[in-house]
Amino acid sequence: MSNIRHTPVAxxxxxxxxxxxxxxxxxxxxxxxxxxxxxxxxxxxxxxxWFAPGTRAIWVxxxxxxxxxxxxxxxxxxxxxxxxxxxxxxxxxxxLAVGPLLRELILAHTRDPADDSPExxxxxxxxxxxxxxxxxxxxxxxxxxxxxxxxxxxxxxxDPAEPRTLAALGAATGASERTLSxxxxxxxxxxxxxxxxxSRLYHALRMLADGVPVTTVAHRCGWSSAxxxxxxxxxxxxxxxxxxxxRGP
Length: 249
What we know:
This protein is of the alpha+beta class. 39% of the residues lie in helices and 24% in strands. It contains eight helices and twelve strands. The strands form two sheets. Strands 1-3-8-5-6-12 form a six-stranded mixed β-sheet, covered by helices on one side. The chain starts with a strand and ends in a 12-residue tail after the last helix.
């Protein structure tokens, strides 16, 4: 990332982004929790891309250069925490599950950033407690380092419905299935089928946010049927794609 803007204090605020709108690469000396009340949020760093619908938030640690992109109309909520206040002990971007209580706490805390009342400080304390209890979810697409792995990932990203096996993709890019399987595990910490599901879910979220029908999304992203897609989606995000997630106010 070039031309990275430096904002010492991570702002706490709510703002709306139009579909496709971006916030260019920047970094803060503070930590930040980034939550999409509606739409789908994409956070990109040099290490990869993290994505989250309304049942997820993204933790961005202090000093990490990152950019935001909106898919669908995004109600963005940003919560800044001082660098010495890390309730999760995380030093890399991480997607967190957001339950109903944590969602309401984030919305309430970002409603009036200028409010410095004791009530709002107590609200933040409860928010931090809820963060500690938030499960981490692997909704990310890391940037591959090995060129052989990068070539295979590019083929799958170019066509989420790409049906070829890892062996066939390896033959097309000049790498053996065994080598690629090892690279997926060593660089991404998952198997090729697991990674391809992550990639397909990423593309599916983007399409759904743009209003593409569920059946069309399932077909374009490589699922054998809409019901198979709905099942994977529900297990990954906690709601069905037809409900479009939890909406903001």
